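2024-03-11 09:14:02 INFO worker-7 job=invfold-0412 stage=load source=structure_tokens
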């Protein structure tokens, strides 16, 4: 028998989208698409109007992340998962070390393990709900981990592995669900890459990378020099970070991009900067996350999945439910009432809710979400 619960309109969120990616797109971003319908959509990405759009994104991100001297913004097609392959092809010289503590941090490590021209990576792993950073390892030239593990709601600290920079190693950080939602000192990274379908409220299929001078130099060297057996490494143009940067400096992408995606991202970057930049965005996300964690700690049927408060994400919040309350049933009833995309990560397989609290999400809507969950559980 199917249970139906009608949530009172008075406690419903104004906007019921709480996805961990794709995330909520603001109405103003859709309006920007409409405004660009005849001047940008359906036009060449190598002509001035679209190039100005890309230039605005690059300049806006430069200001948003307060880039140190010499750091540059590159972008290209394929999303963050494509960037894992770019990093294997263009950044890792011989061997990388990885911190793996969830599905997405493990996938990058798997790419490096499968690359026939790289040595077996050093893996530093921990159980879901925790994190582990890579440690200084002889022969490693690239250290990699995720700022935020989207699958588990764990946020990891970002700082160079002690001794790694002196050894000439790069620090490469997956910022996909963290960028724009969690604090970051970019000087502690050489590559900070992400996709725009999280805090930047856009679509997937695009990657953006903040590159240090050392990373730029490394990519140029790897792509042009002999490697291991003396043969030049084959780097297809699509996986060439050097070619991506060359095109980005011209305010374009190597391949034809989704112009609609660029329009939405440019609008979001301007909105974030106009409101106070990274400090404003991270404060807003922290407030929303705190509302959820506090609610779960007070609840008699819910609790935060991540036990260490210092490791709890302020971008993606994971909440375990007591076994007597089935998450699938709660999620189905929420969806019937227009509240969507709060499901836990499927491969984690827990009785869990997962809530994206990116900057576009109103903290007041988070409060109402908790009221709606309580209402549904009470009326099951």
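2024-03-11 09:14:09 INFO worker-7 stage=emit residues=380
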């Amino acid at each position: 028998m199917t249970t139906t619960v009608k949530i009172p309109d008075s406690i419903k969120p104004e906007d019921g989208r709480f996805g961990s990616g794709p995330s909520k797109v603001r109405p103003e971003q859709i309006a920007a698409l409409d405004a660009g319908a005849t001047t940008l959509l359906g036009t060449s990405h190598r002509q001035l109007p679209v190039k100005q759009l890309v230039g605005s994104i690059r300049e806006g991100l430069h200001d948003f992340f307060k880039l140190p001297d010499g750091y540059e913004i590159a972008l290209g097609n394929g999303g963050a998962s494509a960037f894992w392959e770019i990093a294997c092809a263009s950044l890792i010289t011989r061997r990388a070390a990885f911190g793996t503590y969830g599905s997405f941090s493990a996938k990058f490590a798997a790419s490096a393990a499968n690359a026939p021209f790289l040595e077996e990576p050093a893996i530093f792993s921990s159980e879901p709900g925790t994190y582990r950073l890579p440690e200084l390892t002889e022969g490693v030239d690239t250290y990699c981990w995720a700022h935020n593990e989207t699958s588990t709601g764990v946020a990891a600290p970002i700082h160079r592995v002690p001794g790694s920079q002196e050894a000439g190693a790069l620090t490469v950080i997956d910022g996909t669900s963290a960028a724009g939602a969690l604090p970051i000192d970019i000087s502690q990274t050489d590559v900070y890459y992400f996709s725009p379908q999280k805090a930047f409220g856009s679509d997937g299929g695009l990657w953006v990378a903040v590159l240090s001078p050392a990373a730029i130099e490394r990519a140029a060297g790897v792509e042009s020099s002999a490697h291991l057996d003396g043969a030049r490494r084959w780097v297809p143009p699509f996986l060439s970070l050097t070619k991506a940067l060359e095109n980005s400096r011209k305010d374009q992408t190597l391949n034809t991009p989704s112009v609609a995606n660029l329009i939405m991202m440019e609008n979001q970057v301007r909105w974030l900067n106009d409101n106070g930049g990274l400090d404003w965005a991270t404060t807003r996300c922290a407030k929303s996350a705190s509302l959820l964690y506090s609610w779960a700690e007070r609840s008699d049927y819910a609790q935060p999945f991540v036990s260490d408060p210092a490791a709890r994400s302020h971008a993606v919040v994971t909440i375990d439910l007591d076994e007597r309350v089935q998450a699938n049933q709660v999620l189905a009833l929420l969806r019937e009432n227009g509240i969507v995309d709060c499901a836990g990560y499927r491969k984690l397989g827990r009785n869990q809710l997962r809530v994206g609290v990116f900057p576009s999400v109103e903290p007041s809507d988070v409060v109402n979400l908790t009221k709606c969950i309580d209402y549904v559980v009470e009326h099951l």
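2024-03-11 09:14:09 INFO worker-7 stage=report msg="Residues 27-273 form a domain with the Aspartate Aminotransferase; domain 2 fold (CATH 3.40.640.10)."
2024-03-11 09:14:10 INFO worker-7 job finished
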